[in-house]
């Protein structure tokens, strides 16, 4: 099984000690996101885990544990989001220079093939028009050249929870037709810039209306949870089926997420996973790195039916 850590929160940035404690123990508990009284026990032993996939904006706290991860026998790679957006959108994110330093340091330690750059989501707003994205992306691509082989892009999905927070952002574009037109004019240029910095560009869950443009620009459909990379890193053949639990245009392989919602500390206004930043802050404050689950387990919790966690062979 591929372990996702995590689409729901930034475990490498905020919960690295907890993660390593659970990997040492060989298991963790994950409450059902829709019924916290129902809890699953997830086997984290190297024999049960094909690969750990880390989703993060700032994995510096993980650097001290890389050697231990390797010694445990775990295969792993990082999906590193780096956009350098203004504080109005990313109020608590790391500085651009700090993020670039950590990105390059990480790539030097584990190899560029195990660090994929995510320039996502692409947000159009005042100060973030297509020309600004072109300048921003080209600068970042040059700074990250040699530190990654692939860059993944997506376009803002105007979900209700994100729309409410973004409405007050000056010039924010939330109309899907307008977003499609803006992204359609931008993506070919970004793909050219990526190639100029020796990167392949992948499109993450791009809308059907953007597919012909992406295809003509050499942008391939992304599999952020990439079975080919997992097989390469783990030495195990991995099933290439699509994860039916993700949004329809997602190409990721099936995985088990061990994170929990309402726990990320970055507070990105466009975040799909966090509804209330105050709740996330409270949950982080109450976090116990020794607990079996990320945010603890309710005393009335009951075991969920056994989850199929076979190796995807």
- Can you give the helix content as a percent range? 25-40%
Structural class: alpha/beta
Number of strands: 11
Oligomer: single chain
- Rounded radius of gyration (Å): 19 Å
Give the number of helices: 10
Indicate the low-confidence ranges by residue numbers: 305-313
Alpha carbon gap, first and last residue: 9 Å
Word description of this protein:
The protein is of the alpha/beta class. The protein contains ten helices and eleven strands. The chain has an eight-stranded parallel β-sheet with strand order 9-8-7-6-5-4-1-10. Strands 2-3-11 form a three-stranded mixed β-sheet. Helix 8 (211-216) links the parallel strand 8 and strand 9 (220-221). Helix 5 (130-144) packs parallel to helix 7. It is globular, with a radius of gyration of 19 Å. The protein starts with a strand and ends in a 10-residue tail after the last strand.
Structure in a nutshell:
By secondary structure, the chain is of the alpha/beta class. The chain is built from ten helices and eleven strands.
């Amino acid at each position: 099984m591929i372990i996702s850590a995590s689409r729901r929160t930034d475990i490498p940035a905020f919960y690295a000690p907890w993660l390593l404690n659970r990997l040492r123990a060989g298991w963790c508990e994950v409450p059902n996101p829709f019924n916290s009284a129902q809890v699953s026990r997830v086997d984290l032993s190297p024999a049960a885990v094909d690969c750990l996939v880390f989703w993060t904006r700032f994995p510096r706290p993980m650097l001290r544990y890389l050697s231990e991860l390797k010694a445990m026998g775990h295969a792993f790679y990082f999906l590193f989001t780096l956009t350098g957006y203004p504080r109005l959108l990313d109020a608590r994110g790391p500085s651009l220079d700090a993020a670039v330093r950590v990105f390059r340091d990480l790539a030097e330690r584990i190899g560029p093939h195990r660090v994929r750059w995510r320039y996502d989501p692409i947000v159009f707003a005042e100060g973030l028009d297509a020309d600004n994205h072109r300048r921003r992306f080209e600068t970042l691509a040059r700074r990250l050249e040699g530190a990654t082989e692939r860059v993944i892009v997506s376009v803002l999905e105007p979900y209700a929870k994100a729309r409410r927070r973004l409405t007050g952002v000056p010039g924010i574009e939330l109309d899907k037709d307008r977003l499609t037109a803006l992204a359609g004019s931008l993506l070919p240029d970004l793909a050219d810039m990526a190639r100029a910095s020796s990167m392949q560009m992948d499109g993450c869950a791009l809308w059907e209306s953007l597919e012909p443009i992406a295809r003509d620009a050499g942008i391939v459909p992304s599999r952020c949870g990439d079975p080919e990379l997992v097989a390469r890193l783990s030495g195990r053949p991995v099933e290439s089926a699509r994860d039916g639990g993700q949004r329809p245009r997602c190409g990721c392989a099936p995985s088990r997420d061990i994170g929990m919602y309402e726990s990320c500390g970055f507070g990105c206004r466009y975040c799909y996973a966090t509804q209330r930043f105050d709740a996330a802050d409270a949950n982080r404050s109450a976090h116990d790195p020794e607990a079996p689950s990320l945010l603890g387990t309710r005393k009335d919790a009951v075991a969920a039916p056994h989850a199929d966690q076979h190796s995807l062979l």
